[in-house]
Amino acid sequence: MDAYLNSIATAVPPLALEQQQICGLMNQYYAEELSPRSLDVMKKIFLHPGIRKRHFAADSLGDLIMIRNEDPDLRALRFQNWAVSLSKEALQKAAAKAGIRLKDIDAVITNTCTGYLCPGITSYLNELLDMSDSVRVYDLAGGGCGGAIPNLQLAKALVESEKMIVAGIAVEICSATFQMGNDISLIVSNGIFGDGAAAFIFSPEKTGFKVLNSVSSIYPQYREAVRFIYKKGQLHNKLSPRLPEIIGSIISPFTERLLSGINIRDIKNWAFHPGGEKILGAAQAALSLSDDKIKISRDILKEYGNMSSPSVMFAVENFINKGVSGDKTCVLGFGAGLTIHGCILEAV
């Protein structure tokens, strides 16, 4: 049985701040805590034109400022409330776009890496929405920025094997991992990450995209290049300055395997995880792509920052809404592990 990606919908918190405003706040609250070098690096990152604004999971600017001294229990509750709220909004939109009722969904898959809930987000969605009690639920964790594509792969497999209607949701509250210090990884993270969610519907209904191929690769030798580590019980992001170079060295052979005989010239659209300007630049150079092929991913980065796993689906949403039958889209995500995941979509 063939499986089709019928719809994609996204959601972000209402609170949005421009980078210049965030930079001013960081200077105001951390000028005495950070070294002159760190402050200089922070300014360069925050004022880089690659990102214009980001959205944050807080009810007000005052609440957002409070996360600098956020109690761990309140942080966990903020993650729960916003992850569930954004997931619910995105799922309702995706179901409406696909023309299905929530109670007709046979399985729900969520993925996140920025907080932990047990039971998972799916339990809260089932409680809040008009869904069947017999719905299958899968809560995936630890995939990092690339987590949405394994979610999609699982959804596709369930449709093909059991003729299901499957909903997938990628949601990240990156602000729930906020830490600040002279560690460059933390400064970079605070300059690029935002909060958001993306949901999609997979079913046997022949609308949207068909997945022509999907592959993944894991490179544990690069595990330390991008990951979360625990310090005093709190998540701290770790990013190597070599990450763009690493991505650039492995993306070309990976993409060749993903294309599996499809001519790269036949790929009309490209949707990359917009991990940062240097990541996108390295991918573009390695694959010899023109600026127009990378534009949508750069636009997502500019308007939302790096939202971790949902980001790549924000890019794909642009193409599913404008798809012409036969158009092919290459989707590439990078995440912790180090992992690369990809799929080739064809509009039907």
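the 2nd protein, sequnce then structure:
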Amino acid sequence: MSPMFVPGPVDVAPVVLAAQAKPMMPHRSKDFEEIFRRTAEKAQKLFYTQYRVFQGTSSGSGMQEAGVRNFVQEQVLSCVNGAFADRWNKCAIANGKKADRLEVPWGQAITPEMLADAIKKKSYEAVTIVHNETSTGVENPVKELAKVVHELSPDTLILVDAVSSLGGTKIEMDAWGIDFLLTSSQKCLALPPGLSLAAASDRAMKKAETVANRGWYFDLVLMEKHRLKDSTPMTPVMPLIFALDVQLDRILEEGLDNRFARHAAMAKRTQNWAVAHGMDPLAPEPYRSKTVSTIKNTKGLDIAALNKFLLTKGMRIANGYGDLKDKTFRIAHMGEITMSDVDSLLANMEEFMG
């Protein structure tokens, strides 16, 4: 398996890919319901939650939409510090919500002080926060942000996108008081794309029952009725559920603390290397992601040429995202990537740079 250092889709282990070839079965059968229940129970360990975990047939963006459709009737505050936080804000507006923006420049984090100032000025039904901004390599301090919300506006729900971090760093949903925590399959979980996972607290689900126009496909109240019977309202993406069953076993066998330590060590190695070569990470020290490093391209590297060279070595990295294209490059160190993979990548990059 040639390592890809891109922030999704990522490499998938052969045994996990093979699991998708399991013969089909009726999705209303007891056989499938047992698998569906098993994956949900194992996912609870990854989310550090006692609450239900939904398994949706969509990308993580689908669960972003589910969050605003189910938990917000009108007023939501969007914390925006990158492309995917911006997407969630636009998603809220597209669904008819009044979505205010608490915004900082790309590369900066949302701080508790900023959030405190915003929620003191106005009451919101929910706050949306991207934990790990894939576009910038910034990890927002969600634990501290959640604490501020609970202290100053306890009725406000806390909705968190952890698409590029859950499974790569510890996020304690219940202990931190997160109400809705979402992720998708193709990043730290190291599965093919197309599956989303989201856990919702009891108080969030009670709120959803009062919200009008939740839609149908992403109606979590409807999904909950079926989930209680180990099922879904519509046909689920069964091959990815089969793969999830196998991959969660592999993740739990590695040990969550071991897995998180591996990701943190790879991030430190990558970021220290970049600094040593005169290319600082875009994110300031306290807020650097443990799963994807966005590096300032201060040497003016030709990223397309670099990737063409890396492909001859069986690997690739990602260019900067959006307006950061060519101004930065991104090295993802998540999922199946190991420290030896990172060492090989950095050696090859040094060879390219001369």
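The chain has 13 helices and 13 strands. Residues 137 and 293 are 5 Å apart (CA to CA).
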